[in-house]
Amino acid sequence: MSVITRHLVIRGRVQGVFYRNWMVTTARQLGLTGWVRNCMNATVEAVVEGPPEAVDRIIQLAHDGPPAAKVAEIVVQDARPGSFSGFDKRPTV
User: Fold this and answer.
1) Residue-wise pLDDT tens for the chain (93 aa)?
2) Which residues contact 22 (CB under 8 A, 6 or more apart)?
3) pTM of the model
4) N or C: which end of the chain has fewer CB within 10 A?
5) Residue 46's Cα: distance from chain center in Å?
């Protein structure tokens, strides 16, 4: 099975709208591993890892996010594979 890893920076109204919780639930439903966290600069940062179709799907869904979110932009970059055991919400940095 092919696995890819992507680093995402999500900009817009994405804090205080349950974006991280939505990302955790969605990633787990898609069978992805990685993490998500708020950043002090008002963005949300995530690393997602899994089959290419599932990673592409979460990136597509992330443009909408939860109902209260207003995503302006998502910057996607390749990332080094991690040794994640699940998909977790991390503390703000």
Assistant:
1) 699 999 999 999 999 899 999 999 999 999 999 999 999 999 999 999 999 999 999 999 999 999 999 999 999 999 999 889 999 999 999
2) 65, 66, 69
3) 0.93
4) N
5) 4
**What are the residue ranges spanned by the domains of the chain?**
13-82
Which token pair is 71? 């995503």
Tokens 């696995």 sit at which residue? 3
> CB of 8 within 8 A of CB of 46?
yes
Catalytic residues: 20, 38
Q: Which residue has the tokens 């995402």?
A: 8
> Does residue 5 contact residue 48 with C-beta atoms inside 8 Å?
yes
CATH topology of domain 13-82: Alpha-Beta Plaits (3.30.70)
